[in-house]
Amino acid sequence: MADGVGTWNVLEWTQVTTPKHGLEKFLLEAEDVIVHKTGVVLLNTDEAGILAVTNFRLLFVSRASKCIIELGTIPLTTIEKITDDVKLTSVPRNSEKRELLQVIGKDMRVVTFAFLPKTMQRSAVMDVLKRYRKPVQLWELYAFQCGPSKFKNSNPKLRLLKEYYRFFGKRLLHLPEDESYIISNDRWRMTTINSNYTLCLTYPSVLVVPKSISDEELLQAASFRTSRRIPVISWCNPGSGAVLARSSQPRVGPFMSSRNHSDERLVAGLCSSSADSIASRRKLYIVDARPIANALANNVKGGGSESSSNYFKSEVVFLGIDNIHVMRESLSRLREYVDTHGTTSSDGTSSFLRNGGSTWGGGNLSSMSGSASTLGDTGWLTHVQNVLSGAAWIAARIALESASVLVHCSDGWDRTTQLVSLASLLLDPYYRTFKGFQALVDKDWLAFGHPFADRMGIPTVTDLATSTSTEMLTRQSSMGNASSSPLHSQSGSNLVGARGGATHNQVSDNISPILLQWVDCVFQLLRLYPCAFEFSSRFLVDFLDAVLSCRFGNFLCNCERERQQAGISEVCGCIWIYLSDLRAIGGRSHEHFNLFYDPSRHEGPILPPAAALAPTIWPQFHLRWACPSEAHASEFESMWRTMNKKYSETSKAKELAESKAKDLESKTESLSEELRKEKQKSSSALATVNRVRRENLAIKRAVQSLGCRVNLSTNQSHTSSDLMASTYSDDPCDRSPHDLSVSISAIEDVGVVSGGNPLSRVCESMCPFRTKDGCKWPNEQCAQLGSQFVGLKADFGAFENLSIDDQYFDS
């Protein structure tokens, strides 16, 4: 990096003894700085900064950017080796003045730190790393110091039972206190014979076995299998009844002379069509993952492989997969190859500038020309291909022939676990989802006892009462011949010590990248079938990093029993909750999601042909430290992810706009409805006004026709004619308010005053039935009419108190 060029020469001695580290903002929960040194240079990138050792990781913070440099930051349990005896292939500038420390990681990284000379910086860091990188006790790991925090673990037994229930087509919501959760069908049954781990120390407490086999027969068969790991069902096809089973090697002994009838009945039960139809059996393949030479060599130690003559309708197949030592050495060579030929090497030199060596006829070879043969020499891709081919063959036998398959190696917890879990992934699309992947790992890797503590070189629970010499000897059988085993000549007490407090050499000899190799195989399948997996390559990388860091408790110890004894699920965090929270932050656009996932395209098994199983380097994992730019996802995938992110943002904006539009439409409809109601009210009021106006005019004419005078008065100065015009106007714009009083009085009866005939005068002047020809009133009863006129005249006084506001007549 440009900022790091020449930084070594400008460092001041006062920076070495800075009293405060200032790293608080970079620390995780419960993470404490044990030692820190300033002025340290990361030789890979020639960048200076602060190097600190915490109780969780080796932390490097850049002096220039004040940020964590991921290349120089590695969890302590991920470190495979540290050395101060560093021999650089090419000598970088000023390297002779530096004290070097090289850190080799299990995650393919090789980093070199350069310290100021004669300052004891390197010694201080080395001493702390040696103490905390390999703690003596399990409880010293960071996972116990951090606690569950927000990544609280769920009951692992419940997770396993839920997966078993899925086999039976049922669901389990909670774990009952009694054993009422035990279920069965016409082929298989669940058993709790191992509830106290008396049947097998490294098996789960609940097993699925053929229904035709009793618990007594299981106990009898256990003595015939290494570490008492009897054949049990790992996966089953509910439709065809075919099963995928696992076990350890049988104890047939020299010349394959030993037999066990209970074991033979148990294996036969795996391939029967139903519990009541023993005679109707399907084909059974017994798959031995080892090379045939290794299987024969195990006969000397009492192990070996089955004879097809002892197991009805069976065929024994050897896959030729090498042991844990070969895998460890192969990964070491691959790591060296990547570091040597990468753009960011541990000695700070680009692979383009290296000398590839001399030739016989003179001259030098380029480093690029020799890289291809060097990659082949590592053997890693060949081993990955062998595992893939074996798993594909197993899946094809179950899917195409409806045959049952029993898989084992020596102990049944390394190669067996790889093959069974990978074949299940090919057979069952559920395992290719996030939830299914978790269920698969919980079942085949954790519950069935893959020895993670041994393979990662971390301490486990010390249990002298149950860790017998025989168990520890059989644990070494997966490493090759007995004569080559480092524990073959050890005493029983030393064998027990290997379980609780093993020596450095013993622990190192057990370390092997078995899980890493399996995840590499999953990536190869993801590369072949990009639409079949819900998760992405980045998810697999983060999953491996979390496992190797030992930050969570899921992958501590060697088996379910040890994790239960240590109370892991109660006191440590859960890796699955951590990964789920990461995905929740980014939603469907998070990099853990596979953009090309289309479950409808691969609803059943995926069966890759042998020609397609040609693995490649896993860029996102193998090349991320040495070739960071090439390790990123392909340009097409990056563009697709960017477009998908923009599409998601646009979709969210569209949904928000549509929601607002719906709200506005709803409000508009509501206002329109209110306006419609107001119009109806206005029309009704206008009709009422018109009706009242017509009635008032009729009343006025009727009153006047009776010879009465209508007097209008108001508190404003208006004439009587104006008031009459205003009151009975048809103009709706006339809205002048009036305090209008209406009084009606009868016209003075002149006939009464003058003494004339009042009735005659009233009839002549007012009666509409009075004509020149005489009275046309019915029956001519004018006397009655006269009395009504008199009464009407008497009631005129009631109108004097009538007051009407003319606003009532507004339109």
UniProtKB/TrEMBL annotation:
<dbReference type="Pfam" id="PF06602">
    <property type="entry name" value="Myotub-related"/>
</dbReference>
<dbReference type="InterPro" id="IPR016130">
    <property type="entry name" value="Tyr_Pase_AS"/>
</dbReference>
<dbReference type="GO" id="GO:0046856">
    <property type="term" value="P:phosphatidylinositol dephosphorylation"/>
</dbReference>
<feature type="region of interest" description="Disordered">
    <location>
        <begin position="658"/>
        <end position="686"/>
    </location>
</feature>
<comment type="similarity">
    <text>Belongs to the protein-tyrosine phosphatase family. Non-receptor class myotubularin subfamily.</text>
</comment>
<dbReference type="InterPro" id="IPR010569">
    <property type="entry name" value="Myotubularin-like_Pase_dom"/>
</dbReference>
<dbReference type="InterPro" id="IPR011993">
    <property type="entry name" value="PH-like_dom_sf"/>
</dbReference>
<feature type="binding site">
    <location>
        <begin position="298"/>
        <end position="301"/>
    </location>
    <ligand>
        <name>substrate</name>
    </ligand>
</feature>
<feature type="domain" description="Myotubularin phosphatase">
    <location>
        <begin position="168"/>
        <end position="622"/>
    </location>
</feature>
<feature type="region of interest" description="Disordered">
    <location>
        <begin position="475"/>
        <end position="494"/>
    </location>
</feature>
<feature type="compositionally biased region" description="Basic and acidic residues">
    <location>
        <begin position="658"/>
        <end position="681"/>
    </location>
</feature>
<dbReference type="InterPro" id="IPR030564">
    <property type="entry name" value="Myotubularin"/>
</dbReference>
<feature type="active site" description="Phosphocysteine intermediate">
    <location>
        <position position="409"/>
    </location>
</feature>
<feature type="binding site">
    <location>
        <begin position="323"/>
        <end position="324"/>
    </location>
    <ligand>
        <name>substrate</name>
    </ligand>
</feature>
<dbReference type="GO" id="GO:0005737">
    <property type="term" value="C:cytoplasm"/>
</dbReference>
<dbReference type="GO" id="GO:0004438">
    <property type="term" value="F:phosphatidylinositol-3-phosphate phosphatase activity"/>
</dbReference>
<feature type="binding site">
    <location>
        <begin position="409"/>
        <end position="415"/>
    </location>
    <ligand>
        <name>substrate</name>
    </ligand>
</feature>
<dbReference type="GO" id="GO:0106018">
    <property type="term" value="F:phosphatidylinositol-3,5-bisphosphate phosphatase activity"/>
</dbReference>
<dbReference type="InterPro" id="IPR029021">
    <property type="entry name" value="Prot-tyrosine_phosphatase-like"/>
</dbReference>
<protein>
    <recommendedName>
        <fullName>Myotubularin phosphatase domain-containing protein</fullName>
    </recommendedName>
</protein>
